[in-house]
Design goal:
Layout lengths: L1 H16 L3 H7 L2 H16 L5 H19 L9 H12 L5 H16 L3 H8 L12 H48 L11 H10 L1 H14 L3 H11 L9 H11 L3 E2 L2 E2 L4 E2 L3 E2 L8 H28 L10
C-alpha cells in the first residue's frame, strides 16, 4: 500500500528533522494556517442565534478546505516516487519529534531538581496552573500530555494518512485543530464547538485504541498495561484520551490524572491506576523511552503494510 509507505516517509522525516525553525519562520506551519481559518470563523460566526448550526458549518468548511488543499496528491506520479512525494507533503503533519522535545524539556529540569524550570516547561504543553503543581503533579501532567498526544499528534495522523493519503491526514489535522480551539464546554464554545468535538471523538476512536496497544507493547508489560486501560479508560473525561493515558500508567506502574488545578477552577478528574504511586523524574524518562519505542513500532507496522501491498509489478498507482 503506497500510502503506508508515504506515512513511513513522513514519520522518518519528522524523526530526523522535526519542523525546522527556519522553515517555520519562512512559511509557518500547516496547523497554524488551519488555526487562522478556525479563528476567523470563530470571530465572525460565533454570535447570535443558531450557533450550533454555524459551528457545524464552520467545522465542515475547515475540514473540506484542508482536504481540498491536499488534493495535489492527484497530480503526483504513481509508485514509489509518488509515495515519497506524498510523504514529504505529509511530513509537517506528524509531530513525534516536537512532542518528544517538549516533554524532554520538562524531564531535564525535573531530574535536576529545578522545580521552577520544570513548571515553566510544563506550562508550554498543558493548560493547568503550573504554580500549583508539585514534583509528582509536573510528572503526571507531562506523561498525560505525552500519552494523549502520542495519539493525536502521531498515531492518528499516520492512521488517517495510511487510510486516505494526503487528504486523510490533512483532514484529520483540521479536525484535531478545530477541537483544540473550539471544542470546549465553555459558555462561548459549548454550542459553536459542539460539532468539532463530536467529529474529533469519531476521528480518534480507532487511533486512540491503537496507540494504547502500541504503548502497552512498548512498555514491556502489555498485560498489566492493557488491564489498566480497560479498567480506567472508560472513566476518563474523554472517550478516547483515557486509552493511551491509562496504557501509559499501566506500563510505568504509576498513577495519572486525578484532580487538576486550573487558573479558575479545580477539575475533579478520577485517578487512573489510582492505587499506584505518583510518577517522578525516573518515570518521566521511562515514559519518553516507551514513547520512542511505540513510535518505532508504528513505523514497523507501516513498513509491514507497505511491503505486504507490494505486487510483482511494483506498487499500484496512487
Amino acid at each position: 500500500m503506497t500510502m503506508a509507505l508515504a506515512m513511513l516517509a513522513a514519520l522518518a522525516l519528522d524523526a530526523a528533522l522535526g519542523w525546522p525553525a527556519r522553515l517555520y519562520a519562512r512559511v509557518g506551519h500547516p496547523v497554524t494556517w488551519i488555526g487562522a481559518l478556525v479563528a476567523a470563523l470563530d470571530r465572525r460566526w460565533n454570535r447570535g442565534r443558531g450557533r450550533r448550526a454555524k459551528g457545524t458549518a464552520a467545522a465542515l468548511l475547515v475540514v473540506a478546505a484542508a482536504a481540498a488543499g491536499a488534493l495535489a496528491q492527484g497530480v503526483l506520479p504513481g509508485g514509489w516516487a509518488g509515495a515519497l512525494l506524498v510523504g514529504v507533503l505529509a511530513w509537517p503533519l506528524v509531530a513525534a519529534r516536537s512532542l518528544h522535545d517538549h516533554v524532554a524539556a520538562v524531564a531535564r529540569p525535573l531530574a535536576a531538581g529545578d522545580i521552577g524550570g520544570a513548571r515553566q516547561a510544563v506550562a508550554m504543553i498543558v493548560g493547568r496552573d503550573p504554580q500549583r503543581l508539585d514534583r509528582g503533579g509536573i510528572a503526571r501532567a507531562a506523561l498525560e500530555s505525552l500519552a494523549e498526544n502520542a495519539s493525536d499528534g502521531v498515531i492518528a495522523p499516520l492512521f488517517w494518512g495510511a487510510v486516505a493519503g494526503l487528504p486523510g491526514i490533512a483532514a484529520y489535522k483540521a479536525v484535531n485543530t478545530l477541537d483544540s480551539m473550539i471544542g470546549h464546554r465553555t459558555p462561548r464554545h459549548a454550542d459553536f464547538g459542539w460539532a468539532a468535538a463530536r467529529i474529533d471523538d469519531a476521528a480518534n476512536l480507532i487511533p486512540a485504541r491503537l496507540t494504547a496497544g502500541l504503548i502497552a507493547l512498548a512498555g514491556g508489560r502489555p498485560a498489566a498495561s492493557w488491564r489498566v486501560a480497560r479498567a480506567d479508560a472508560p472513566r476518563h473525561r474523554s472517550p478516547n484520551g483515557g486509552w493511551p493515558e491509562s496504557a501509559m500508567a499501566g506500563a510505568l506502574g504509576v498513577r495519572l490524572s486525578g484532580p487538576r488545578a486550573y487558573a479558575d477552577r479545580i477539575a475533579p478528574e478520577p485517578w487512573i491506576n489510582g492505587a499506584a504511586a505518583d510518577p517522578g523524574p525516573r518515570a518521566l524518562a521511562q515514559g519518553l523511552a516507551v514513547f520512542r519505542r511505540a513510535v518505532a513500532l508504528a513505523g514497523l507496522v507501516l513498513a509491514g503494510v507497505a511491503l505486504g501491498g507490494l505486487a510483482p509489478a511494483g506498487f499500484p498507482p496512487l
